[in-house]
Amino acid sequence: SIGNAAKFMVDAFWLQSPQQLIQDASNDSSELSESAKASLINIQADDLMGKYGERMGKRKLDALILAASESGDAQSNLQGMVTIEVRLLD
Predict the structure, then answer these.
(1) Distance from CA of residue 22 to its chain's centroid?
(2) 48-50-54 Cα angle (round to 5)
(3) In whole angstroms, what separates CA 74 from the centre of its chain?
(4) DSSP string, the chain
């Protein structure tokens, strides 16, 4: 689901990146409040929905999210994710 993908992106990319993309006032991403994390997940989900979710009308080009989970169940913890978009290049 888009929600699982958003949570994975926040946990694996935003909060665990070596570049320390997200930090609290003490410069520690591990101490980020639950409300701040939930807000970031919602923002990420909105972004993913805009790019890969269903829109009104038919898409001109395909886009999708492929996710791998430990048990093969889409509701379990994600192990990896890739997004694919078809684009035209000049």
Answers:
(1) 15
(2) 100
(3) 14
(4) -HHHHHHHHIIIIITT-TT--S--TTS-GGG--HHHHHHHHHHHHHHHHHHHS--SS--SS-EEEEEEESSS-TTS-EEEEEEEE-----
| Eight-class DSSP state of 61 | S
pTM score of the predicted model: 0.65
- Give the 3-state secondary structure percentages of the chain, helix then strand then coil, rounded to 5: 40, 15, 45
The pLDDT tens digits for 14-57 are 887 766 666 655 555 556 788 888 998 999 898 888 777 765 45
DSSP, collapsed to helix, strand or coil, labels residue 15 as coil
